[in-house]
Amino acid sequence: MSSSVASLEGEGASIPEDPVPPTKRKKSDQPEPDFTFTCTQVWRRWLDQNINTLVVGKMFADQAEADVILGTDTGNIIVINSNKKDVVLDTKADAIQTLLLHDVTRLGGSELLAGDSQGTIITFCREQILSKQSFGSSVKCLEVYFDALNGFEVVSGDMTGVITAFLPHWRLWRTSLYDETFKLPRAYLNDTDDPAIRCLLSVILPDAHGVDTHFILACDGSPYVHFLQKGTLTKSLELPCLINCMCYGYFVESTSPQKPHQVALGGNDGNVYILEDFKVRKLMNIDHPVTNVKRLKMEGTTDVLLCTGHMNGAQLYKDGRLIHQIETDDWIHGVGIGDIDKDGADEIAFSLLNNEVLVYKYRHSVGPVHMFEA
Q1: Would you tell me which of 26, 71, 268, 273 could form a disulfide with 53, CB atoms 3.0–4.6 Å apart?
Q2: Residues 6 or more apart whose Cβ sits within 8 Å of residue 68
Q3: Are residues 157 and 174 in contact, defined by beta-carbon separation less than 8 angstroms?
Q4: With bands split at pLDDT 50, 70 and 90, how would you rate the model's confidence at 77?
Q5: Residue partners of 363: CB distance under 8 A and separation at least 6
Q6: 132-136, 167-171, 209-213, 319-323: segment of lowest average pLDDT
Q7: How deeply is 128 buried, as exposed, middle or buried, from its count of CB atoms within 10 A (0-12, 13-18, 19+)?
Q8: What is the DSSP letter of 370?
Q9: What's the per-residue H, E or C state across 253-301?
Q10: How confident is the model at residue 258 (pLDDT cuts 50, 70, 90)?
């Protein structure tokens, strides 16, 4: 497979940035957008099993509220909400590393896919096991790739750097991103680079001619973001650091004359970068390695970006400015967003290293935004 490699200008893939970081400015230096944001805890739970991963969503077509779905190191999946009895799904597998909800059968509702530490992917349909597939190595992440014809395939990334596309009963293609990475021209490539796929993201981005193109973005133990189409590595963009997480949205005023297509990249160096038009710029720094970035969609304005990292809490940003902070008793390792209390508005669910689950309600309105000074 052939691929093109793009490197950012300057030594060490340096990134252009605002000379004064947004969160370091004084209030008088900040623009005053008409936006206020509040976040309130609505319920919390402690579990007696170690939580590895979290997703929020609905498994049944007629379900009114989204549930908080947790993957544990015992191989159990626990479905919880504040207003109903817990449901425990036995995967008959090893520790659950990642979860995904999607209607893979096209029968209505969503199937639940779980990847475990031994390379098995289990698909549940209406709380019953539909299929089990063995891919041979611990599954680190799952994503759904959509093509231009509205078709889709589930894509997994494992700890050996292999990316596999599949549907519940068959495999479609397989690529060793680790092997492809060793073809990339950088002086500091060595055998100690971690091959594990850290994150995957299905996106639509304009190509050089402005045509919307469907990609899977993948990040591994090398400082690149890789662009794949149907298993073919088409482009790799060098970055200043390893990337732990990604999300798609509209996070800052666009530099593109076309419709904004932006990807937020959470870096191991504590920076959050914005990928747009195959160029990367630094947005802000959270002072800790970034482990989750999530989009809170806003109508008629730029989105709010939620970040977690090696810290007890979460930080929320708009246009690169810190607008809200949430304090927790331990590090957050799982984040999900959905309408958990069926009030027509989304909530945020967190899972913590101490096996606590927190759910927060957030609201935004017109008014002067509150900024946090450093």
Answers
A1: 71
A2: 54, 56, 79, 80, 81, 336, 340, 349, 357, 359
A3: no
A4: very high
A5: 37, 38, 39, 345
A6: 209-213
A7: exposed
A8: P
A9: CCCCCCCCCEEEEEECCCEEEEEECCEEEEEEECCCCEEEEEEECCCCC
A10: low
Q: Which residues contact 201 (CB under 8 A, 6 or more apart)?
A: 143, 216, 217, 246, 247, 248, 263
Side-chain half-sphere CA neighbours of 317 within 13 A: 24
- Tell which residue, 298, 367, 371, has the closest CA to residue 36: 367
Provide the edge-to-edge strand list for the sheet that holds 321-327. Answer: 290-296, 304-309, 313-318, 321-327
Task: Determine contact, residues 73/98, Cβ cutoff 8 Å.
Answer: no
pLDDT digits (tens, 9 = 90+) for 31-46: 445 788 999 999 999 9
Q: What is the pTM for the complete model shown?
A: 0.87
3-class SS of residue 124: strand
d(CA 28, CA 151): 50
Q: What is the C-alpha to C-alpha distance for residues 137 and 18, in angstroms, rounded to an integer?
A: 42
- Both tokens of 336, joined, read 């999900």
Q: Edge-to-edge strand order for the sheet containing 139-146?
A: 139-146, 152-158, 162-167, 170-176
Which residue type sits at 37? F
Q: Is the pLDDT of residue 15 over 60?
A: no
What CATH number has the domain spanning 45-296+333-338? 2.130.10.10
